[in-house]
């Protein structure tokens, strides 16, 4: 990573923040998605003041954040990728917010992890708004029951997240997620990524998850 890359990251961050604040009087929180990013990219965006981060794998999140967490007390770490039940305890230890509750078994394991660690975290339910068979998330019809299950287990669920199908316009999916959240009295809405964070903001997102628009294209060979 060159000095120019590092300057670019801060510039892109400021441009996105200003775009979001033009769209909405209460703009969504920018969640910087740091999966696959090198240390220099993390340091660059931290130096620019970014404090809220999304990761989609527990192991990589530890590599990125376990040590930094000790020196940066105001970090907020959000798990945005699918969670295997057997990683629940590791996830609860590191993440402030887990956005990807999608099944009853995970509720049980997260509740056990909270009890064991003495930590209380914040949760979102991932909704498969496109009902895609290969995609994680509960179907829109199942959200209410899963919310009830999560609450029976004592989990503090505050919102919903979705990843619309890539080949469809995202607007109707964001609208559906917002409607479900309203109906269920949930306040957080995590929707919108690099290609459509502006649209997410227009549909009332409280959090947009942005990776490549901040850091440049990800290098999957790494
Ligand atoms: C990678 C990822 C993002 C960020 O994707 P970009 O298109 O790079 O902004 C957002 N949400 C989830 C769940 C992701 O896995």
Description of the molecule:
With 222 residues, the chain is α/β, with parallel strands linked by helices. Helix 3 links the parallel strand 2 and strand 3. The model has no long low-confidence stretch (mean pLDDT 96). Helix 4 packs across helix 5. It has a single domain, classed as Alanine racemase (TIM Barrel, Alpha-Beta Barrel), CATH 3.20.20.10. The two termini are 13 Å apart. The chain is globular. It contains 9 helices and 8 strands. The site of pyridoxal-5'-phosphate has 13 residues, from strand 8 and helix 9.
What's the short story on this structure?
The protein has a single domain (3-212), classed as TIM Barrel (Alpha-Beta Barrel), CATH 3.20.20.10. The protein is globular, with a radius of gyration of 17 Å. Helix content is 45%, strand content 17%.
């Amino acid at each position: 990573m060159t000095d120019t890359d590092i300057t670019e990251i801060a510039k892109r961050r400021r441009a996105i923040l200003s775009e979001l604040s033009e769209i909405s009087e209460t703009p969504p929180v920018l969640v910087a998605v740091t999966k696959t990013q090198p240390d220099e990219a993390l340091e660059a965006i931290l130096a620019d003041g970014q404090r809220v981060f999304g990761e989609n794998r527990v192991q990589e999140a530890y590599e990125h954040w376990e040590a930094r967490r000790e020196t940066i007390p105001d970090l907020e770490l959000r798990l945005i990728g699918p969670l295997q039940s057997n990683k629940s305890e590791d996830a609860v230890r590191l993440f402030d917010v887990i956005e990807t509750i999608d099944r009853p078994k995970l509720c049980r394991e997260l509740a056990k992890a909270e009890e064991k660690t003495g930590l209380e975290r914040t949760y979102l339910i991932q909704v498969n708004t496109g009902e895609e068979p290969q995609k994680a998330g509960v179907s829109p019809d199942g959200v209410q029951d899963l919310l009830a299950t999560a609450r029976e287990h004592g989990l503090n669920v505050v919102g919903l997240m979705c990843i619309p199908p890539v080949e469809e316009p995202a607007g109707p999916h964001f609208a559906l997620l917002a409607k479900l959240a309203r109906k269920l009295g949930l306040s957080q809405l995590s929707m919108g990524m690099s290609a459509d964070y502006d649209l997410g903001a227009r549909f009332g997102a409280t959090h947009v998850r942005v990776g490549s628009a901040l850091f440049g294209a990800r290098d999957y060979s790494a």
